[in-house]
Amino acid sequence: MAVVTGAAGTMGRAVMERLARDQIRTVGIDVKPSPGGIVCDIADAAAVNKTIGEIGAVDILVNNAGILSNNKSEATSPEEWRKVLAANLDGAFYLSRAVIPGMKARRWGRIVNTCSLAAKTGGLTAGTAYSTSKGALTSLTFSLARELAAFGVTVNGISPAYVRTPMVTEQLTEAQRQSVLAQIPVGRFCEPEEFAHVVRFLVDPLSGFITGEIVDLNGGVIMD
User: Fold this and answer.
1) Whole-prediction pTM value?
2) Do 199 and 112 form a contact (C-beta atoms < 8 A)?
3) Mean pLDDT, the chain, as a whole number?
4) How far apart are CA 144 and CA 48, in angstroms?
């Protein structure tokens, strides 16, 4: 059983469709209603525990839910800071904590976190809260990978840059989009299906020797 958060969004839907093609039973979670999905506020630890308890054994967890904030430090209110960190970091922690006991008992599991290029760049266009949340999510990935490696559970992250989603098409101005495109060597935005392809690779049984890795998916913006 796979659980994908942010299932109502473009990237979440792409992941669910990709896993379904390989007959992997998948449940979507989102704060918004989605076809065949479960409504859950992942920033609420009690709600997460209840939802995972109802779903049952989870072998694959894709922590994909997140919200964008473009505000830099002085324009970021305490409320916005807490809201972004809660959605982008707390939810991934609560969900991981809920599924880890079962994965350890079965001695197999896959956790994939949607990180971001912003963790390395400080946010080319993203704001302070968003960039910080993704940096912390990267650190959470490393921490869980170290903790769970001996149990056959891998924990990895994908660090995409500018996937063709409403975050790019609606929340950036045309001038910002053109500026970003000029910095991407491949000269285009990432497609959601390309992101889903990397998720599918990381959750494959043959990817069991990859853990604590952050896969850059940025068209060559940063090469390291």
Assistant:
1) 0.95
2) yes
3) 94
4) 18
Q: Which two tokens stand for residue 162?
A: 């500018």
Pick the closest to residue 171 from 133, 125, 123 (CA basis): 125
Q: Which H, E and C letters describe the chain, residue by residue?
A: CEEEECCCCHHHHHHHHHHHHCCCCEEEEECCCCCCCEECCCCCHHHHHHHHHHHCCCCEEEECCCCCCCCCHHHCCHHHHHHHHHHHHHHHHHHHHHHHHHHHHHCCEEEEEECCCHHHHCCCCCCHHHHHHHHHHHHHHHHHHHHHHHHCEEEEEEEECCECCHHHHCCCCHHHHHHHHHHCCCCCCECHHHHHHHHHHHHCHHHCCCCCCEEEECCCCCCC
**Radius of gyration, CA atoms only, the chain:** 17
The pair of structure tokens assigned to 173 is 């101005």
Q: Please say whether the beta carbons of 140 and 89 come within 8 A.
A: yes
Enter the tokens of residue 57. Answer: 């054994």
Q: Rounded to whole angstroms, what are the CA distances from 40 to 50, 113, 124, 129?
A: 9, 18, 31, 22
- Residues annotated as catalytic are 130
Average pLDDT score over residue span 90-98 = 98
